[in-house]
Specification:
globular; mainly alpha; 2 domains
């Protein structure tokens, strides 16, 4: 579990610098330039992600059951994950109501994805992984919204076209991942 936890700390730490230490980040970019900063950020993020994957697999060798989730939660998790994909896409699609309402739909999507998995899976490694992502996403979302309010940020109004694009693209990506890639990449078929 140590490798998994170190990976989570690196990955989430890198993704929290702008919220937790923006003045330091600004000084570092001024000192080493934006390109090297992005390279360093990417290196730390990818290292953390690699350690998360490796640590998750290592932790699976000695599974520890913390709780048994109701069987219905597996199907509910599919809905949570579909919503998460739509929110992820909404972060990139211009002028949609998801972005207008949430401001940061990608972070909201991470929270929904993590919550769905926590409700469906009770193994220790899953609770650590998804619990960490849920806590990070909630804290990050709150910090980003506070920053938006302080800055007087106004997100563009949503349109039906932006909503439709977010839903259609998000649902298509979700279907490809859920029905094909999840079993191949994660080793678990979510529907069996």
């Amino acid at each position: 579990m140590i490798v998994l936890i170190v990976g989570l700390l690196l990955f989430m730490g890198a993704h929290s610098v702008r919220v937790l230490a923006d003045p330091w980040r600004t000084r570092m970019i001024a000192r080493i330039a934006e390109g090297p900063w992005k390279g360093l950020y990417s290196l730390v993020s990818l290292t953390g992600f690699g350690l998360i994957v490796w640590g998750f697999r290592l932790a699976g060798r000695n599974p520890v059951l913390l709780y048994v989730a109701p069987a219905s939660m597996r199907h509910a998790n599919a809905v949570f994950t579909l919503i998460a994909f739509v929110l992820l896409v909404a972060a990139y699609v211009p002028r949609n109501h998801f972005k207008a309402a949430l401001g940061h739909p990608m972070v909201g999507g991470v929270a929904v994805w993590a919550l769905g998995h926590l409700l469906a899976i009770g193994m220790a490694r899953d609770v650590i992984l998804f619990g960490a992502f849920l806590l990070w996403a909630v804290a990050e979302f709150a910090a980003l919204r506070r920053r938006d309010r302080r800055a007087g940020a106004i997100h563009p109004a949503g349109t039906f076209a932006g909503d439709a694009a977010s839903v259609v693209i998000g649902a298509a990506l979700w279907a490809g991942f859920a029905f094909w890639l999840h079993a191949r990449w994660i080793g678990v078929d979510p529907f069996t």
